[in-house]
Glycosyl transferase GT2 family
Amino acid sequence: MVTVFTPTYNRAYRLEQLYNSLKRQTSKDFEWIVINDGSTDNTNELFDVWLKEENDFPIIYKEVENGGKHRGINKAVQMASSDAFFIVDSDDYILDDAIEKVNRWFSQIADDDSFAAVSGLKSEPDMKPVGGYGKFEGEYVDCTNLQRHLYNLLDDKAEVYKTSILKKYPFPEFEGEKFVPESLIWDSIARDGYKIRWFNEIIYICEYLPDGLSASSDKKFMESPKGFIAYLNMLETVHDPREVDVFRLQFYQNIINTYGTDRLIEIINMANKMKEEQK
């Protein structure tokens, strides 16, 4: 069984295409957990209707105070009743046989403690894989998230993690901040040696909207500096620190350009304190 998890914030105008794609699934061996992250649109009204409809899969809907996608993931992982956890964003949808394929691939690695996940491909609606197809012999390749570039597994992919792994690697939650880069967790799992079975089949359709998380990442970084600093500190454990410094300096320059040097000094002091606490 698979938990399909959807965090949503003011996406009522997009959610129906995902809902319809779930209703079309060739396998109904899944549950749908939706965390409404403080939406101010008509999302509640949609689910008032959908929860009363007859579906072949359970829908678990929860409204929370706006706190960011990472908090939603943490909540949903604790709520999940399946072994496989599949994040499908509210502006995306999955192909009709996606759950069937995920269950088939996941069953191959479910009892192997060296694996954290399986992953298919994402595509935009033109059915061309985001980042292209992986380059490897056979139907799949096994490697960590940090090794994926070796096989042309570039850009966003459709990972389905073991729920038990995500319970061991929760996202950090910082008071007053609403964003943590997801790679903080995915790369931490990879750093500890867990593999993913990557298969060369499209299962997930995405569109990168102008108001989506991907498009607004720089702004999110500046508004949630502790989350971004935690991400940079993790990167130093898996990459050359000199390369990470280039990334850090770009972040600091953006802070100066947007907020000024006084805010930069605050953030540098914050970063130093966080490093001391990690020792």
User: Anything to note?
Assistant: Residues 2-205 form a domain with the Spore Coat Polysaccharide Biosynthesis Protein SpsA; Chain A fold (CATH 3.90.550.10).
